[in-house]
Amino acid sequence: MIKVLFICLGNICRSPMAEFILKDLVARRGLTDRFEIASAATSTEEIWNGIGNPIYPPAQAELKKHGIGNTPETDFRDKRARQLTKSDYEIYDYLIGMDESNIREIERITGHRGGKISMLLSFAGEQAAISDPWYSGRFDKTYADVTRGCEAFLEYLIEQGEV
């Protein structure tokens, strides 16, 4: 089983989009049983009294626009923000951040550098960050960038013989 954790600042836009886009990609290939895919935040901004906020409504709308959320594998109604923990480094095979700030925070929280920690678009041969649509309002661009990164990540796993 390949365990993947996507990480962004609040876990309400980019990382849950990546979580459910990858869940959709692996479901379409009949690989759901080979993966455990989740997402988390580097901050507690979207967690109140121990309860995380749901995926931000415009991010939900963008996923739905592309047919994600309509199957048992991609149903995101119960998804709530949660914060990354130090132990996540031991649990997951891949900890994938959306930008350099996420990477620094992942390293700080887990106490590890490199290894399992990568930026999503690095799998597509890019060192670019995925812009936060909370600030840009460009949920379509974020969806396209996250999809490109997830497709490249899945191809990387196939090329490496992990899938």
Automatic annotation (TrEMBL):
Tell me the ranges covered by the Phosphotyrosine protein phosphatase I domain, including all copies.
2-156
Against Gene3D superfamilies, the record matches this protein to:
3.40.50.2300
InterPro entries linked = LMW_PTPase (IPR050438), Ptyr_pPase (IPR023485), Ptyr_pPase_sf (IPR036196), Tyr_phospatase_low_mol_wt (IPR017867)
Q: Which domain of life is it from?
A: Bacteria
**One protein family per Pfam:** LMWPc
Key words of the record:
Hydrolase, Protein phosphatase
Catalytic reaction(s) noted = O-phospho-L-tyrosyl-[protein] + H2O = L-tyrosyl-[protein] + phosphate
Its EC number(s): 3.1.3.48
Q: Which family does it belong to?
A: Belongs to the low molecular weight phosphotyrosine protein phosphatase family.
Tell me what this protein is called. Answer: protein-tyrosine-phosphatase
